[in-house]
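Supplementary Methods. Inverse-folding protocol.

Structures were first reduced to a discrete structure-token string of length 326. This string, shown here, constituted the complete conditioning input.
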């Protein structure tokens, strides 16, 4: 397996201190979902972007991000989604490229002309480079650094890089009239787009460590945030959309020759992620499947060489169906 960082700037120390949302709360939410039934009588719409050809703009190319987008496109179509697919690769025609002008136009069309309403499901998927921008930005979420995270696109002329920040992405997502919205990012630093301290990377806090939150304080914070949907005015809060991110706010993500590691297990989750066997794969179930397999099949193998990362998911009192299990 060959690996390449989806990395724009040098990596900062990995966050391993843990999440404010303990794994037991997420597990309990899955148990509750086992007794639920889902009404799937709604339309499903997705915007899928993958950028692999960065070299004309002076960036390192990626090997599998275009394949990520095309494979996600095929999966979503098989699941009944209407999909807008854009990839930037050497083989694509300019009209279909995943550049910033098309991104804005695709969101505008979805918001105004795609006949979506509040009951429908909307997904935005991106695979490509991610980065962090200089301090002095609009970051307001407690517990974060002071840097804006951004997905990295190219411009329409393919000769310059465009940094599309988490706040700009949040503003686009806000225009979509659907109540059910999911953002999936396979990029470095992508966990930083989540605007809520109720965020999980599936690493339980060390409750006995000096300086860490105690168990009851952590649970109290989680319950408070579940009840109040904190939105700090930057990034993407769970009241706006649920987010699955390949890596933490200060972590890199990895790709193989076939797919990004996170995307590979996301694709598998559609068939294998139905943890409660109710016929549906929700955001939480897909996340648990992705996390478990990254930890067992990537981190355990490549961890001794220094390659370790954990996917993140935003917290919230709701869960949406991503896939119908075969």
């Amino acid at each position: 397996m060959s690996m390449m960082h989806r990395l724009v700037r040098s990596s900062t120390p990995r966050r391993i201190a843990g999440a404010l949302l303990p794994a037991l709360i997420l597990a309990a939410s899955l148990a509750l979902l086992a007794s639920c039934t889902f009404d799937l009588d709604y339309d499903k719409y997705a915007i899928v972007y993958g950028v692999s050809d960065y070299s004309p703009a002076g960036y390192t190319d990626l090997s599998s991000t275009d394949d990520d987008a095309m494979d996600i496109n095929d999966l979503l179509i098989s699941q009944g989604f209407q999909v807008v697919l854009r990839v930037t690769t050497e083989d694509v025609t300019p009209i279909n490229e995943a550049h910033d002008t098309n991104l804005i136009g695709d969101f505008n069309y979805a918001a105004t002309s795609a006949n979506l309403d509040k009951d429908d499901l909307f997904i935005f998927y991106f695979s490509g480079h991610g980065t962090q921008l200089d301090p002095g930005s609009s970051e307001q979420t407690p517990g974060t650094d002071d840097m804006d995270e951004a997905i990295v696109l190219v411009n329409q002329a393919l000769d310059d890089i465009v940094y599309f920040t988490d706040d700009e992405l949040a503003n686009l997502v806000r225009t979509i009239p659907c109540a059910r919205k999911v953002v999936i990012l396979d990029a470095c630093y992508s966990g930083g787009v989540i605007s809520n301290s109720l965020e999980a990377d599936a690493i339980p806090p060390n409750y006995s460590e000096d300086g860490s939150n105690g168990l009851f304080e952590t649970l109290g914070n989680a319950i408070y945030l579940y009840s109040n949907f904190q939105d700090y005015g930057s990034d993407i809060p769970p009241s706006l959309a649920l987010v699955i991110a390949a890596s933490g706010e200060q972590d890199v993500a990895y790709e193989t020759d076939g797919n990004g590691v996170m995307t590979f297990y996301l694709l598998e989750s559609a068939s294998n992620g139905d943890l409660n066997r109710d016929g549906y794969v929700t955001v939480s179930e897909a996340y648990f499947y992705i996390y478990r397999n990254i930890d067992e099949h990537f981190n355990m193998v490549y961890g001794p060489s220094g390659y370790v990362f954990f996917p993140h998911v935003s917290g919230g009192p709701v869960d949406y169906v991503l896939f119908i299990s075969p």
